[in-house]
Amino acid sequence: MITNYTKTIYIVIFIALICIILIFLSLKQSTLDFTFYKDQKVETLDITKPYWFLVKTPKSDQLATINVDLKEVDFTKNNVIISVGSEINRIVFNKKSLPFINSHFVTVHFSGNFDKNIVYIYLIKKVEVYEDLHYMNTSVIEK
């Protein structure tokens, strides 16, 4: 005969298993698809390592700082990732659950080549992309 105590134990174990599965699924890394759009020479920037940022509209303040024109990009279908100083090899993300539905916390993997006079422009589908501030290591330079 199953007692109330036994039922409670089964429920707790069941809930714990669901939590473990959800945590495991949230840690799974996936690759974010991106398309090379163009590279562009820029004035020498005062940087010592590559960095990236997301552009959602053609009127982004960050675009003005590096003097890049994206008039031809269809921002209704795409967001743009600007990589300053290095090409991007890959972008990986952990898909987070509530409250971050449709948000991608990403780590960008740069090539090992660094040139502070070039920006690389990539198109991605219209998704929200954020630096993964939990780990404070949103960029990896591959050799």
Protein model, in words:
With about 140 residues, the chain is of the alpha+beta class. It has one domain (about 30-140). It is built from two helices and nine strands. It has helices at about 5-25, 60-65; strands at about 30, 35-40, 50-55, 80-85, 90-95, 105-110, 120-125, 130, 140. Strands 1, 5, 6, 8 and 9 form a five-stranded mixed β-sheet that branches. It starts with a helix and ends with a strand. The model has no long low-confidence stretch (mean pLDDT about 80).
Give the key terms:
5-stranded mixed beta sheet; alpha+beta; 9 strands; 143 residues; 2 helices
End-to-end gap: 63 Å
Overall domain count = 1
Indicate the percent of residues in helices.
10-25%
Question: Helix and strand string, N-terminal first?
Answer: HEEEHEEEEEE
Give the tally of β-strands.
Answer: 9
Summarize the main sheet.
5 strands, mixed
| Structural shape | elongated
Number of helices: 2
